[in-house]
Structure to design on (752 residues):
C-alpha cells in the first residue's frame, strides 16, 4: 500500500519522562486514520512528535518517502503538514481573517482557498472581522481546521476535534472533515469512539506509549472485546 | 451598583486622568504657566527616551520571554557609537574595511551548508573539527586585527581623550584627526588573513549546524553575490579611506548627525541579532541562566565602554540646526528657529531647548506610530502578535519563529540604540546612563503592562512627566493646602516618586494599566 506517513517505532521524552515507548503508525494516502486510546496514552504526543514539536529521540518518521525526524518544526510543517491542536490555539488578538492569513506559506494561499473554506464553514464568513477571543468553542474549532487548510497541506493532523462541543456541532464538524478528506489525508485523534468509527477507515490503538493494534475500522467496530479492553467504551 | 461597574471597567482611564490631573492641579497651584509648559515638555522628552528603551524591552519580553537586562547597556552603547561617528568619523571609516571582510564569509551561508552536507565526516571528527577550525580562525583574526591600523583616541592621555575631543568639537573647531600609522602592516596580508579567518569561521559554524536544514540546495552564482559585494566594498573602503573620511568630516553637521543616528541604529540591530543568535538562543529552555547572562552582558558592556571611551562624562555637540545662539535667538516660533537654527526657543515666555524638548518627543511619537503600524498592518507584525500568545502554534504553521525572534530582538536593540544616540547630545554620555534609563523603563513597563506596546508608551509618559514635575517642585516648592508650609521635594524623591506611582497602580491593577489578564 502507498503510505504518505510512516512512523517507525519512535521514542519520545518530555523532560525526563519516557512518554512514547515505541509507537508505529502507518497512514495510507487519501485515508482518514484514527489514533485511539485512553486519556494519557500518548496520542497527542505522537502528533507532536511527527511535527517535531516534541522531537523523538529514537525511531524514524518518513513523510512522502523522506526522513523528517530531527528536522525543525517549521521545516516539517512547510513540507505540507497541517496541525489542528487539541486546545485549538486560536490567536486571540488576531481577527478571524488574520488567523487564516497567518497560515499562508506563499502569497495568495488565502485568496485561493477562501472559497473552499467558506463552503465548508459558512459561519466563518460572517465572523471574519471578529477577534479570536470572541469566538465560541465550536467556532474556534472550525477556525482551527480552516487555518490548517489555507496552505497546501497534503496531510492534516487533527487532535480531538469533538472535545467539549455540542452534538449538533459535532455532526457539522464530522461532515466537514469528511469533505476535506477528499483533498488531503487525515490523521485524527479522537476520544469519542462513535465519531472516530464513523469517520475513519483505519485505526491505530495506542496504550501506555506503545502502539498495540492497528487495522481497518470496519473490523474493529465488530470486535467488541477489543474495544472493551483497550478503549473501555461499548 | 452600575456606577461601581463603570469604575471597574474604566479603571485605566480613571487612574491616568487622576495622575495627570493631580500634576496639573498642583501646577495650577503655584506654578507659573511658563514653568508648567517647560516641565511638561521636559517630561515628554524624558518620557520619549524612556519609551525607546521600554518599547524594545517589552517587544522582546512579549515575544521571546527574555528579560533583557542588558537593554540599558545597549542604549548606552548606541550613544557612544553615535558620538564616535559624529565626532570621529575617521574611526568609523577605518572600521568599515575589516568589518566588511569579516562578514564576507558569512554571506556564503547556503554554500557552506551544501558543502558540509557533501563532505562526510565521521561522527567524532564532526564534533572536534569545527572547534579546531574555530580556534584557528580566531588565532588568525586576532593576529591580523591586532595590527590593523585604526584611528582611535587615547583614553589615558587627557589631550587626546574623548572629553577633550568633545570639547573642541563643541567649540566648533576642526579636530585634528591624526593620520593612521601604517608601518608594519601589509594590506595584502591583512586582507588575506581577514578573509581566510572569516571563511574558516563561517564554514565551521555551518558544519556544526549541518543536518538540521532541508537537504537539497541548488548552488548558483547568486549564492556568491553577497560575498563578492562585501569583498569589493571592503577593498573600496580601504582604497578611498581618506576621501571618505574627508567627505564625512566636511559634511554639514546635520547630515553627519543623521549618519550617526543611522550607524548607531544599524549597529544596534547588528549587535542585537548577533546576541540573540549566539548567546540567547541556546538558553531559551533555561530562563534563569538567560537572566544571569543578560545581567553579566550588561556589566561587560559597561566595562568595554569604560575601556574604549573612558570613565569621564562628556557630551556630544548638537548638530548645527539645533546649536545656534547668535542673532535672532532665542527663537519665538518654529519658523524663526528654522531661519536662525536657534538652540533655544521661547514658549509662553519660557526658554526651551529645541533639540531636547521638541525634536526628541517628535521622534518618540514617530517611532510609536511606526512600530504600531508595523505590528498591526504587516505580516511580520501579525506573526509577532500571534507568537506572543502561542509560539508553538506559529511554528506548527510552518513559520520560522527563530528568524522572527532574531528580527524582534534586533529591532528592540535598534530602538534602544536610537534612544541612546538621541540622548547623547541632550543629556550627555556617561557609563551609567544605561542603568538609570533601564530602571525608568522597567517602572514604566510595570505601570503600563509588561507586554503591552501602548502600555509602554503610556507608562513612559507618566514616568517622564512625574519625574520632571517633582524635579521642578524641588526648585519652586509646593504650597501644602490649609497650612503655611512650602514643601520642596529633595532629589532622592524623584526616583522614589515613580516607584510609589508604580506601587499604587499595581495595587489597583496588578497587570498594569493596559496589561492583559493572563
Amino acid at each position: 500500500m502507498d503510505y504518505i506517513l510512516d512512523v517507525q517505532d519512535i521514542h519520545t521524552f518530555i523532560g525526563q519522562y519516557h512518554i512514547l515507548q515505541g509507537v508505529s503508525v502507518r497512514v495510507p494516502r487519501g485515508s482518514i486514520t484514527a489514533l485511539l486510546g485512553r486519556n494519557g496514552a500518548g496520542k497527542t504526543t505522537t502528533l507532536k512528535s511527527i511535527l517535531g514539536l516534541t522531537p523523538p529521540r529514537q525511531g524514524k518518521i518518513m513523510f512522502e518517502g523522506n526522513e523528517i525526524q530531527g528536522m525543525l518544526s517549521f521545516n516539517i510543517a512547510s513540507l505540507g503538514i497541517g496541525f489542528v491542536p487539541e486546545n485549538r490555539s486560536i490567536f486571540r488578538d488576531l481577527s478571524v481573517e488574520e488567523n487564516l492569513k497567518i497560515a499562508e506559506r506563499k502569497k495568495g494561499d488565502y485568496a485561493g482557498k477562501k472559497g473552499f473554506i467558506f463552503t465548508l464553514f459558512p459561519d466563518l464568513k460572517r465572523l471574519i472581522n471578529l477577534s479570536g477571543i470572541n469566538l465560541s468553542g465550536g467556532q474556534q474549532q472550525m477556525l482551527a481546521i480552516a487555518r490548517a487548510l489555507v496552505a497546501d497541506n497534503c496531510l492534516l493532523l487533527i487532535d480531538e476535534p469533538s472535545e467539549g462541543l455540542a452534538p449538533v456541532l459535532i455532526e457539522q464538524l464530522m461532515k466537514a472533515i469528511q469533505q476535506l478528506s477528499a483533498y488531503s489525508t487525515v490523521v485524527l485523534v479522537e476520544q469519542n469512539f462513535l465519531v472516530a468509527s464513523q469517520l475513519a477507515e483505519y485505526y491505530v490503538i495506542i496504550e501506555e506509549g506503545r502502539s498495540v493494534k492497528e487495522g481497518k475500522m470496519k473490523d474493529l467496530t465488530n470486535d467488541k472485546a477489543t474495544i472493551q479492553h483497550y478503549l473501555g467504551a461499548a | 451598583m452600575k456606577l461601581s461597574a463603570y469604575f471597574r471597567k474604566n479603571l485605566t482611564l480613571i487612574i491616568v486622568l487622576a495622575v495627570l490631573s493631580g500634576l496639573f492641579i498642583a501646577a495650577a497651584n503655584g506654578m507659573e504657566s511658563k514653568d508648567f509648559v517647560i516641565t511638561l515638555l521636559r517630561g515628554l522628552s524624558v518620557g520619549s527616551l524612556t519609551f525607546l528603551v521600554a518599547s524594545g524591552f517589552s517587544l522582546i519580553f512579549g515575544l521571546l520571554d527574555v528579560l533583557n537586562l542588558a537593554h540599558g547597556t545597549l542604549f548606552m552603547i548606541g550613544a557612544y557609537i553615535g558620538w564616535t561617528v559624529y565626532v570621529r568619523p575617521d574611526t568609523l571609516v577605518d572600521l568599515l574595511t575589516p568589518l566588511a571582510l569579516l562578514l564576507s564569509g558569512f554571506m556564503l551561508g547556503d554554500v557552506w551548508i551544501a558543502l558540509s552536507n557533501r563532505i562526510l565526516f565521521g561522527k567524532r571528527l564532526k564534533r572536534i573539527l569545527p572547534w579546531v577550525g574555530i580556534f584557528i580562525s580566531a588565532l588568525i583574526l586576532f593576529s591580523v586585527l591586532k595590527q590593523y591600523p585604526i584611528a582611535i583616541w587615547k583614553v589615558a592621555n587627557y589631550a587626546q581623550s574623548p572629553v577633550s575631543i568633545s570639547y573642541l568639537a563643541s567649540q566648533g573647531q576642526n579636530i585634528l584627526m591624526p593620520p593612521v600609522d601604517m608601518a608594519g602592516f601589509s594590506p595584502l596580508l591583512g586582507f588575506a588573513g581577514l578573509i581566510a579567518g572569516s571563511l574558516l569561521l563561517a564554514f565551521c559554524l555551518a558544519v556544526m549546524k549541518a543536518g538540521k536544514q532541508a537537504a537539497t540546495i541548488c548552488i548558483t552564482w547568486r549564492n556568491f553575490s553577497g560575498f563578492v559585494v562585501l569583498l569589493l566594498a571592503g577593498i573600496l573602503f580601504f582604497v578611498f579611506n581618506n576621501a571618505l573620511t574627508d567627505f564625512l568630516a566636511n559634511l554639514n553637521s546635520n547630515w553627519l548627525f543623521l549618519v550617526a543616528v543611522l550607524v548607531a541604529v544599524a549597529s544596534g540591530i547588528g549587535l542585537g541579532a548577533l546576541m540573540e543568535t549566539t548567546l540567547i538562543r541556546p538558553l531559551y529552555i533555561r530562563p534563569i541562566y538567560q537572566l544571569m547572562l543578560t545581567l553579566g552582558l550588561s556589566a561587560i558592556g559597561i566595562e568595554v565602554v569604560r575601556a574604549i571611551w573612558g570613565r569621564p562624562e562628556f557630551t556630544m555637540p548638537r548638530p548645527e540646526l539645533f546649536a545656534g545662539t547668535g542673532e535672532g535667538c532665542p527663537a519665538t516660533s518654529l519658523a524663526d528657529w528654522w531661519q536662525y537654527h536657534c538652540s533655544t526657543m521661547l514658549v509662553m515666555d519660557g526658554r526651551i531647548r529645541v533639540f531636547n524638548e521638541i525634536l526628541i518627543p517628535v521622534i518618540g511619537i514617530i517611532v510609536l506610530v511606526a512600530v504600531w503600524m508595523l505590528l498591526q498592518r504587516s505580516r511580520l507584525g501579525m506573526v509577532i502578535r500571534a507568537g506572543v500568545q502561542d509560539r508553538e502554534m506559529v511554528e506548527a504553521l510552518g513559520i520560522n519563529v527563530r528568524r522572527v525572534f532574531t528580527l524582534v530582538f534586533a529591532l528592540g536593540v535598534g530602538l534602544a540604540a536610537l534612544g541612546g544616540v538621541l540622548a547623547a547630545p541632550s543629556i550627555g554620555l556617561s557609563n551609567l546612563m544605561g542603568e538609570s534609563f533601564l530602571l525608568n523603563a522597567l517602572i514604566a513597563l510595570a505601570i503600563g503592562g509588561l507586554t503591552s506596546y501602548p502600555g509602554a508608551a503610556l507608562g513612559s509618559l507618566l514616568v517622564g512627566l512625574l519625574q520632571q514635575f517633582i524635579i521642578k517642585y524641588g526648585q519652586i516648592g509646593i504650597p501644602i493646602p490649609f497650612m503655611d508650609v512650602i514643601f520642596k521635594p529633595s532629589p532622592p524623591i524623584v526616583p522614589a516618586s515613580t516607584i510609589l506611582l508604580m506601587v499604587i497602580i499595581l495595587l489597583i491593577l496588578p497587570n498594569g494599566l493596559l496589561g492583559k489578564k493572563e
In short: Residues 137-150 of chain A form the longest helix (14 residues). Chain A touches chain B at residues 51, 53, 70-75, 77-78, 83, 85, 89, 91-94, 98, 101-103, 105, 147, 151 (CB under 8 Å). The domain at 3-231 of chain A is CATH 3.40.50.300 (Rossmann fold).
